[in-house]
């Protein structure tokens, strides 16, 4: 069930292109949301591997003036941060498998 939800959310994110050119303000807003999601995941000790990489690439794209790409990368990083938080909550009391105790 969770795999289907993640797949559907990722597909929706990819297909939700914008009909307007992004600006510095759009990037700043997207980046702030992504950084907040990343920090929330990090606080739960469940930050995903590529989230920081996506944020760095987003900053590089913004610095180069490609705000459309920068916003897209920031939104992908925000998605990863939110999903990492959801994963941590869902698996909070999962425990270890029985075979580890034999």
Secondary structure: elements and pairs:
Layout: H1 2-15, H2 24-43, H3 51-63, H4 67-90
Helix pairs in contact: 2-3, 2-4, 3-4
Explain what you see.
Helix content is 70%, strand content 0%. With 102 residues, the protein is mostly helical. Helix 2 runs parallel beside helix 4 (67-90). The longest helix is centred in the last third of the chain and has 24 residues, at 67-90. It is elongated.
Short descriptors:
single chain; mainly alpha
Short note summarizing the structure:
With 102 residues, this protein is mainly α.
Structural class designation: mainly alpha
The total tally of domains equals: 1
> Percent of residues in helical segments?
55-70%
Please outline the major beta sheet: none
Q: Would you identify the regions where 5 or more consecutive residues have pLDDT less than 50?
A: none
What is the first-to-last residue Cα distance?
30 Å
Measured by DSSP, the beta-strand proportion falls in: under 5%
